[in-house]
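Please fill in the sequence for the structure shown.

STRUCTURE ENCODING:
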């Protein structure tokens, strides 16, 4: 029974972390105008941060996905 619980924990924690990282980028896109107003810059001056985050999110998935597959332990 302990292996089943560990399997689900090992699946749930990375899934939650993935959704948190994607959610952070989504929140930025929603609140970018408010953030720009708060720090005193124009929205255009702060848009590079969103583009930068999306770029590195995609690049990390593309280039580090193979490493994750090689090093992950098959729970079954």
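FILLED IN BY: designer on duty
SEQUENCE:
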């Amino acid at each position: 029974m302990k292996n089943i619980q560990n399997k689900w924990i090992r699946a749930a924690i990375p899934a939650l972390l993935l959704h948190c990282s994607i959610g952070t980028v989504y929140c930025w896109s929603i609140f970018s105008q408010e953030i720009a107003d708060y720090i005193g810059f124009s929205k255009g001056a702060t848009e590079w941060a969103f583009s930068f985050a999306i770029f590195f999110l995609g690049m990390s998935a593309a280039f580090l996905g193979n490493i994750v597959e090689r090093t992950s332990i098959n729970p079954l």
